[in-house]
Amino acid sequence: MDDVVLVQARSRPDLAREVLALDELWPEFVLHDPAGELYSAHARRWIDWSFVLIQESDPGTLLGRALTIPFTWHEPLEALPDRGWDAAIEIALLSDEPNMACGVEVTLSEAARGRHLGGRATELICDIMRERGLSHFVAPVRPSGKADHPEMSMDDYLGRRDPDGEVSDPWIRQHLRQGAELIKVAPLAMTIPGTFDDWQRWTSIDFNGVGATVSVEGGLAPVMVNHTERTAVYVEPNVWMAYDLQRR
Question: What is the signed CA dihedral for 245, 67, 26, 91, rounded to 10 degrees?
Answer without folding.
Answer: 80
